[in-house]
Amino acid sequence: MRQFIIFIALFIAGSTYCIAQNDVENDFEKFKRQREQEYKDYAKEQKKKQDEQSDELLNFLKMSKEEYALYEKRAMEEYARYEKRAKEEYQNYVNSIKKIWGNNNVADNTKEEWVEYGKDNRSRTIVDFENGDIVVEVAINQDKDNKKEIDKELEIAVENLLKSKGKTCPYESTVDVSKDLTKKPVLDNLVDYSEYSKNGAKINENNKKELAKTIVKQSTPQKQTIVGGDGEKRVVAKIEMKMVPNRLSKNAALYKDMVQSNSNRFNIEQPLIYAIMEQESNFNPSATSWVPAYGLMQLVPKYGGYDAYLYVYKRGWVPTKSYLYQADKNIELGTAYLKILMNQFSKVTDAECRRLCVIASYNTGAGNVSRAFTGKTNVNSAIKIINTMSYSQLYKHLIRNLNSSEARNYVKKVSERRDKYMR
Fold it and tell me: Which CATH number fits domain 249-422: 3.40.50.720, 1.10.10.10, 1.10.530.10, 3.10.150.10?
């Protein structure tokens, strides 16, 4: 009897285990089927996107000359609407600065200078990437014109500068996006702290707050009185700092990964990309010219920007200034534009000569380079003459016959800078 009871108990236990095991297997199978279905759905969605992109590219490639002209016209019209609104918003921003600093005392981004205002516009910093000068200014109400108040405001302004990653749009906008200019602080490793010390010891460069206090304490502010656009008199206190002597090589290193990846992607040598960046902006990520051209590689939205975006993404769109201020986007499109120019001069048999033509074209356009040889904009006609020249002959011809002194100097400077990055 006892053996029979044990047998029954074992039988029940075994059955329970089998049922539990089956439940586990059923749960696992159910989980597996769910994951398989999710993967199939994902793959289907990805294929749909690829098909849509392929269709868009195919339709683009099938366009007639007239259809492409209409396509481009629509992109330009869209940009014109953007530009109108962007200018209105920018002017509102400038007006808010004038209230504090006065109608004739507005500092703004240039090719060489990165300018940033504090949140209330009562402080501003101006970093000259070409000459290596840094200016920090604060505008104080006259009733607060004392050393304690001035030092406090300067310390805040210096600390904010040392931490700042910049902004692609420093004010509220309905058409431009506000993103960081760089992944790390813009001035990381670029400020010369050698003249500052704390109790005779080397200062801690990582503690920005203490660093700002030390800099202000060991600086002598220059003061002047201004009248804001609101009619209020204010005292402006200014201190000056310096960038490190080897700032160009350190600044170039900040963009090493971006340059390398786009160099590989578009088959454009890295020394040429660096040379263009240095010539165009001195590695100022917010570089802005009167043209207007924007960012590290100074792309003109409606020309090089449009052509490069179309080449990369097979879609007609004119990049906005806030888009071109983003370092990764700017280097991508700038390098793509170099590739477009390389393609235009692909029939130049000598690679060194081809590169010279591309350098000149980046500044003045392929048509103007052609004019230096034939008086006309037809590139193929110019190439026939270019292919009869040595590198030395071509170089001399370009720096003598290009249409502007700027273009002639550009060929010289970029060629010299490229040699530097080849070392």
Answer: 1.10.530.10
